[in-house]
Amino acid sequence: MPDGLGRGLDAPLFERVVIIGVGLIGSSLARVARRKNLARTIVACDRSAAVRERVVALGLADETYEAPAEAVRGADFVILCVPVGACGGVAEQMKEGLAPGVIVSDVGSVKQSVVNQVAPHLPENALFVPAHPVAGTENSGPDAGFATLFKGRWCILTPPGGSDAATDRVRAFWEGAGSNVEVMTPAHHDLVLAITSHVPHLIAYNIVGTAADLEEVTQSEVIKFSAGGFRDFTRIAASDPTMWRDVFLNNKDAVLEMLGRFSEDLTALQRAIRWGDGDALFNLFTRTRAIRRSIIDVGQETAEPDFGRRKVDEA
Amino acid sequence: MPDGLGRGLDAPLFERVVIIGVGLIGSSLARVARRKNLARTIVACDRSAAVRERVVALGLADETYEAPAEAVRGADFVILCVPVGACGGVAEQMKEGLAPGVIVSDVGSVKQSVVNQVAPHLPENALFVPAHPVAGTENSGPDAGFATLFKGRWCILTPPGGSDAATDRVRAFWEGAGSNVEVMTPAHHDLVLAITSHVPHLIAYNIVGTAADLEEVTQSEVIKFSAGGFRDFTRIAASDPTMWRDVFLNNKDAVLEMLGRFSEDLTALQRAIRWGDGDALFNLFTRTRAIRRSIIDVGQETAEPDFGRRKVDEA
């Protein structure tokens, strides 16, 4: 098939899947669930009337609801796709509607905090399998989603009791969406993502802010000459503000730990520049090139250069 | 024409253009000079025999030399395309061969240091117009270049006496390569590029190094889950180590100044996270989104999302 997702399942994996929060991730899940026959019925739930209108216009779901408790009635799989800080509130709102044996999951970029927020609200016979698809773009909202967003990406599951039947079903769902699945503890997830995602975002936001505040260099100069490297930071720094505020507030310890290491290392580099220690610079810059090569080798990136975005052909 | 570069000039702009150092930038210049008829004769000079062999195999030049003094004989335009720290040495090696009235330029990412290194070696009747094309990729060497690298990108000229006839000819050359040209002082250039290019590169190198040194998170985890944001830093941190060592050693003051501001701002963000100041985070993250929009509006980037690199189609 042209989308590279292969053909879908013969029978739906779940009967009634409820997606709560239809932004970039939620709407991408709705699209791939439909295309790969991961659910017989797709239910969308969003508190925003404008989002619900887009869901209907785009044909993303079979049913659309405002209230979580109504949306989840009769569901066998509920996925919270709201910002990390909103998960506890939504869990509380939906708990009355949950059927026995329902599997509840999420897509949050922080896991320990989601577990702490959500678990207390769930009935004893609900099965909680937190998940984090490591995929996204800098765009937000139901129109930004697409069915292949998760293809070839990793999805991390952090089930409280390790692997079990519910975990296997959630794994099958994400594999159906094209992802590779890995299981780890919430605490380890939060540490790994602090360095591979959270601190990189914080740094990108920070330098774009620093550049905006300069007096000697005009805003228009920063924008004009951004192709030198800055441009890539602005893409990351265009990510959803609410989502990222919640990530930093909810993964405080790991982010502060990784940020401390980053700052120490940066101070050492600053000193090398001040004292003209070219060898220290050269050695680091050589070492980092090898890591890039590994990322390309494991298929999380192509070798195609990306600075010269307008590359048209080779001479 | 399919490359979007338009048709070339009717008569060559220069008679004999010498490109000293045939890496990513030098080889891209050779390609576009040929395609757009910017030079009657293209001369390539490189101290590496392996590079000269590739130049011949790729058909990038009409003549190939090892020694700068031989290469530049009879030239009306000489462009140094070597790392910033090597410019002074090359200028000294080539000075004997320079013809009266020759225009000498470069492509260095730092300008004041290049002026200081090169100017003392030039004969009085040589015309020096330093240049910096703000374009590149993370790849290096003669095979990495392509004719459209400079298309739609800015090239900054820092002529010592402001605009004059020689500056106009260098401007025409870069406009012929598809670039927009801007003139400023070397000192201002170095400040602008410190924030739009040099500090972003240093930060990218630094975080990739920090991630490589962690004990709690394995290297393979960093590589696997890089799609969360880290991946974009690794691309920047794969840039040429020699070139970038020289940039930092030769733009020390501006880099240290901008790095100081960056670190101050990062400390403030760190404090906001520690104290749970969500509003401070949200306000910065909203402000930085607007800057991204401006970069797209002025044509230095497309709105196409780039995190989900494997995006195949929309559902």
TrEMBL record, chains A, B:
Q: Which residues form the Prephenate/arogenate dehydrogenase domain?
A: 15-303
**Record SUPFAM superfamilies:** 6-phosphogluconate dehydrogenase C-terminal domain-like (SSF48179), NAD(P)-binding Rossmann-fold domains (SSF51735)
Pfam families found in the cross-reference section: PDH_C (PF20463), PDH_N (PF02153)
Key word Cell division present in the record? no
Q: Which UniProt keywords apply?
A: Oxidoreductase
InterPro entries per UniProt: 6-PGluconate_DH-like_C_sf (IPR008927), NAD(P)-bd_dom_sf (IPR036291), PDH_C (IPR046825), PDH_N (IPR046826), Preph/Arog_dehydrog (IPR050812), Prephen_DH (IPR003099)
PANTHER family, alphabetized: PREPHENATE DEHYDROGENASE, PREPHENATE DEHYDROGENASE [NADP(+)]
Q: What is this protein called?
A: Prephenate/arogenate dehydrogenase family protein
- Source organism per entry reads Alsobacter ponti
